[in-house]
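Just wondering, does anyone understand what follows?

——
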Amino acid sequence: MDNDSKAWLILIVAGIMEMVWAVAMDYSEGFTKIHFDILVIIFLTISMVLLSKALSMGLPVGTAYAVWTGIGAVGTITVSILLGNEVATIARILFIALIIGGIVGLQVTSGGNKEEN
């Protein structure tokens, strides 16, 4: 696996960690449930460290940040719908698909690492 592929894989995992802490934050009920508070802190830290690692491997910051937040947003909405905390409407699913399309488009058109541009 080349450096660029590793950076993208790390970024994807960082986005997944973003989703975990966001969902845990909802369940922490305003940081009043300590076990969820701890999960938020742990997964938020992991997410930020992995984002930083992906950036240090050469991903462009704008693209990486947009993909990272996009993965977190889509994942969080999806999990919330699956857990019954949010409603899945055709319009919402369409807009989720648009976010996914944007994430894929940014990755495909990124042109590789910033050092190569």
User: Anything to note?
Assistant: The longest helix spans residues 3-27. The mean pLDDT is 92. The helical segments are 3-27, 34-56, 61-82, 90-108.
